[in-house]
Amino acid sequence: MSRVPDIPDTSALEGGGDRPMSIIRRIGRERERMLGMTDEERAWRKKWLDAQKLAPEEPVTPVGYYKEMYNPIRRFYSAPMNKVQNMMEPFMGHTAAYVTRHIISKSVMSIFAVYCIYYHLKYNPMQWTRQGGWKITVSRPKMYPDTKDLDALYRTKGNQFYVNGFDKSPI
């Protein structure tokens, strides 16, 4: 009977831990457990599962963890929504408050981005005085032979060619 070799657990190494191999052994895989376990392995697995249970006060966040993990700029712009989340947690629970906080903050950022784009498009059009800017044109309405006042639609005010803002120039 061939046995699959243990795959080492590298998560402890990445975090700076001191365990170079998995402590789960072959019991960590369901297929291995289905092959059969000795009484010693059952006792070890029970002990290992009991060790995985967290105490009521866990997980414990070390003092200064938030300050070390997030830079000052991110802490500054996250502070208002942190306060909102902390106010909502007693009523909604941690997960619902966290999701609501992110929905609110992303919605506000999206609305702000749309307003910024609108402002830029409105007040920075392409003109003859500069090369940059957005070229925004409005199409003429559809005209059919039975359209009322067809002559009024054909009449244009001023120059009918594309003047790129030159007709409004003080020169």
Your description of this structure?
- The chain has 171 residues and is mainly alpha-helical.
- Among the domains are: 11-52, no CATH class; 65-123.
- The protein is built from 7 helices and no strands.
- The protein has helices at residues 11-14, 30-35, 39-52, 65-69, 72-92, 94-123, 150-154.
- Helix 5 (72-92) packs across helix 6 (94-123).
- It is elongated.
- Mean pLDDT is 79; it is low at 4-9.
How many helices in DSSP terms?
Answer: 7
Counting DSSP E segments of at least 2 residues, the number of strands comes to 0
Q: Based on CA inertia axes, which overall geometry fits?
A: elongated
The level of helicity is 40-55%
Estimated share of beta-strand residues:
under 5%
How would you characterize the largest beta sheet?
none
Based on secondary structure, the structural category is mainly alpha
What's the order of the H and E elements?
HHHHHHH
Radius of gyration, rounded?
34 Å
What is the distance, rounded to the nearest whole angstrom, between the alpha carbons of the first and last residues? 94 Å
Q: Point out poorly predicted stretches.
A: 4-9
Quaternary class: single chain
Mean pLDDT: 79
